[in-house]
Design goal:
Blueprint (H helix, E strand, L loop, with lengths): L17 H28 L5 H7 L3 H29 L3 H28 L1
């Protein structure tokens, strides 16, 4: 007869695991590299920083695609972080679900706005 010492450990909370940890690190790295690229373009270009300079930086297609990748990375980074916060600190399931839905709607709205601004330049 097997003897069960202790209780079974139930891991609950914010989807603990390598996938979320790695996605936070990768998206953070993508955003950091993008920041360095933009800063390098600003410093190398010289001259006053105005609308024309910003429009010139984001006018090329490769920069628009890179910015789109960064926007997607930012959204995923924010979603994983906020989901973890809601799951760790909000215990009532109904409130947690409402906050998660609000977060998704807010992030999708921000994505639409950011892409609209990006492709207007």
């Amino acid at each position: 007869m097997a003897v069960n010492y202790g209780s079974k450990r139930t891991v609950v909370g914010a989807h603990y695991g390598l996938r979320d940890w790695l996605s936070q690190r990768v998206t953070g790295l993508v955003m950091a590299l993008f920041t360095l690229i933009v800063l390098a373009q600003l410093l190398i270009g010289g001259g006053p920083i105005g609308y024309d300079k910003w429009a010139g930086i984001f006018a090329s297609q490769w920069m628009k695609v890179l910015t789109f990748v960064v926007i997607a990375s930012l959204l995923w980074h924010a979603w994983v972080g906020m989901r973890d916060v809601w799951m760790d600190y909000v215990q009532p399931v109904g409130i947690r679900l409402a906050l998660q839905i609000f977060t998704i709607v807010w992030l999708v709205g921000c994505a639409g706005w950011a892409i609209q601004v990006l492709w207007r330049v």
